[in-house]
Amino acid sequence: MNEFEYTDSLKHIFFQAYDYDKKLPDISLEEGEEALDISTLEAFIRNDKVRIYFDLNADEEKFVVFRRNEDDIEENKYCIKIETQVAGDKQKLKMLVNIIDQIMADSMKLDAIKKEKNTSYSHFLIN
Alpha-carbon distance 29 to 64, whole Å? Predict the structure, then answer.
């Protein structure tokens, strides 16, 4: 087993051990930013391609990726709205931060998300 295979197998074990898909809200994709109500939210994290909004004390859990319709736009192409409840759940918060870190490090992974119902968090964690 070479180094790449070893590292990849560790990523799979890590992902399965923490069960991201069961602990975090389902990922959904919306086209167009007009569906996003950000009037009460603040962008806590942003770079030139992604803005992320949080509500960590929400009653209903959502992880929605909004993609701007214009194909020629690269700046602020994606907006992510995360609504979840993390009070008293340090592991869930750590998992969420890990996903956000992966998205900000490689926002190109968002380009591969389609309107599939079963987008897994493994998409962001495993190469």
Answer: 6
